[in-house]
Design brief:
- The radius of gyration is 18 Å and the shape is globular.
- It is built from 9 helices and 9 strands.
- The longest helix is centred in the middle third of the chain and has 14 residues, at 77-90.
- Helix 1 packs across helix 4 and helix 6 (148-154) crosses helix 9.
- With 249 residues, the chain is of the alpha/beta class.
- The chain has a single domain, classed as Rossmann fold (3-Layer(aba) Sandwich).
């Protein structure tokens, strides 16, 4: 994915995270909470970390206190502008924001104790090279069944018709092939309920489920989805996440 989509989101909303309140129901655990708790566990005030795809920097500025320092990279110039503004507001100097790609960068090999990735791009050979021996790679990614029902109605979308292939097993295989040891891996399924049509519409404008989402052109599809998945809790959107913790040995 190129940075143009996120540049557009940053210009339109002023950040990546928008204040849309949803009712979330987890079949097991909240994957975001699992990810954050695991990141804190493998962190340490003597450790250097690398954030892959930092976006507006909100998450990394919050967790920076658990590390010696964090280098946060992204390819979206506009998101990085927002991240730097957020940094100025917080007065946090433990994070360095850089416009870098995971596929082409000038980061030093074996210079990080921890690399973490929140739904960002993956380049496992690069991550292996950048980690010190004994270092950890932590990922929360998008599962193959994420938002499947709405994609079926729209007839397109991120990972469209790839729901028969396990993202978790694919990633585990790739990580092992490079030389990582898998410490933990899990699929997580949960449901988000949006209070109204308008709030679901705004949400879709700011995420890459449909990079070409258009509120006017896609109105008929979104209305169809609302009719089918509206209940007393709101408009149901089934989500799928994967979490993997791997160690460089």
């Amino acid at each position: 994915m190129n940075g143009k989509f996120y540049d557009k989101v940053a210009r339109k909303f002023g950040s990546y995270s928008r204040s849309i309140t949803t009712l979330d129901e987890y079949l097991t655990q909240d994957p975001e909470r699992v990810f954050k708790e695991m990141l804190i566990k493998i962190g340490g005030k003597n450790k250097n970390a690398l954030d892959i795809g930092c976006a507006d920097g909100h998450f990394t500025l919050k967790v920076s206190k658990y590390f010696k320092n964090i280098t946060a990279i992204d390819i979206s110039k506009e998101m990085l502008k927002v991240a730097c503004k957020n940094q100025e507001t917080t007065g946090n100097h433990e994070v360095t924001f850089l416009k870098q790609s995971v596929f082409r960068n000038n980061l030093q090999s074996e210079s990080f104790d921890v690399i973490y990735n929140r739904r960002g791009p993956t380049n496992y050979p690069s991550f292996y090279s950048l980690l010190k021996t004994g270092g950890y790679y932590l990922e929360i990614g998008i599962g193959e069944n994420d938002c499947r029902k709405i994609k079926e109605i729209f007839g397109r979308g991120q990972g469209f018709k790839k729901w028969g292939r396990s993202t978790l097993q694919r990633d585990i295989k790739e990580l092992k092939k490079i030389g990582f040891r898998i410490v933990m891996s899990e699929d997580y399924f949960y449901n988000e309920y949006y209070p109204s049509y308008n709030e679901l519409d705004v949400f879709l404008q700011g995420v890459p489920i449909f990079e070409d989402f258009d509120s006017s052109k896609d109105k008929k599809f979104l209305q169809q989805y609302q009719i089918k998945f509206q209940d007393k809790k709101g408009i149901k959107l089934p989500r799928h996440r994967i979490v993997i913790l791997a160690k460089k040995v």
